[in-house]
Model the fold of this input.
Amino acid sequence: MTLTTVIGAQGFVGGRLVERLTAEGAELHVPAKGDPDLFTRPLGRVIYCAGLTADYIQRPFDTVAAHVELVSRLARDADFERFVYLSSIRLYDSGGADVGREAQPLSLAVDNPRSLYDLSKALGENLTLTQMGGRGTVARLANVYDVRPGDPGFLPEWLARAPGEREMDLDSTPSVARDYIHVEDVAQALIRMAEAGEGVVNVASGELVSNAQIAACFEAAGWRIGFQRANAVPPPPRVEVDRLHALGVRPRGVLDYVATYLAELSRR
Done:
């Protein structure tokens, strides 16, 4: 059995990936942050989940260290068979295209502090694809969700409130639309990419779902949902997922997931 090393296992995606691999009986190496052992032993297939999201503006240097510096050291000094780097479909947002395709060039602003996340992820992608001897592949993740307490993100927090609150006023607007993918589908995709992935793969559903559509699911199940804002927000690009499907991964639909989850809550 091939060894899998998960870097960033303390995070949301990395932690669930470790759970999935453990349940499948995989041989695992889960190094702690800063573990020098990364450069002294074979790592097998590396799935690189380390990174910052919500607090990257407050921690710019930590963001660069996580997204770029450690990746650079691993490319240069580590002993591995395959390398999967986690990036984001956010890299398509500033390009102006209606559809995010893996092969299209990226357009990123260099003078905006909020571009630090995108620029650092893009450089991590470049190192993975050009400095790892053809052994690297990039997973551009959509908005990952689940319903465990403490899971990060707008939708997980919304879902986590549902058992105790039948009426909610959310600090958002109905027009916001996102591509959502369940964390279990992400784990499946990353394992398949570690086995056979090439280039860049959009790990996403391929469908934009608005807050209004999710609220309609809640209301059909007996909840009342209000929004504190009403401004119109342009949608991000829809992303293509043909490469993900070619790996045998077809993510579940978020509206079906939400409807099933709420139905289960109603039966309790």
